[in-house]
Design a protein that fits this description.
globular, mainly beta, 11 strands, four-stranded antiparallel β-sheet, seven-stranded mixed β-sheet, single chain
């Protein structure tokens, strides 16, 4: 069983930066893939970024490439999402997710989820 707790959300102006954190417990942190997804009311959950257990591989959604960076620190069992050049369309609830298999874009393939953290970007 893996527990995930996100933090770092908030309200910022367009163009600002924000860093989200997701603290994980349970299982072997270096053994599972971690992903970030986001969701706005009435829309499907959108893939943002994912990082492999070894941190060698990362993938990003097209809408955040070049602006967001995912990283992890195995020493503190935490995955981060550094968000830069934020836009109003980045406003959403951001979720951290984990799976014990390889890196993937599909939210349905992630078994463990955090409770989410709200990010609001105003113009």
């Amino acid at each position: 069983q893996v527990q995930l707790v996100e933090s770092g959300g908030g309200s910022v102006q367009a163009g600002a930066s924000l860093r989200l954190s997701c603290a994980a417990s349970g299982g072997t942190f270096s053994a599972y893939t971690l992903g970030w997804f986001r969701q706005v009311p009435g829309k499907e959950r959108e893939f943002v970024a994912a990082i492999s257990g070894s941190a060698i591989n990362t993938i990003y959604g097209d809408s955040v490439k070049g602006r967001f960076t995912i990283s992890k620190d195995n020493a503190v069992n935490t995955v981060y999402l550094q968000m830069s050049s934020l836009k109003p369309e980045d406003t959403a609830v951001y979720y951290c997710a984990a799976r014990f298999l390889g890196i993937d874009y599909d939210a349905g393939k992630y078994r463990y989820w955090g409770q989410g953290t709200q990010v609001t970007v105003s113009s």
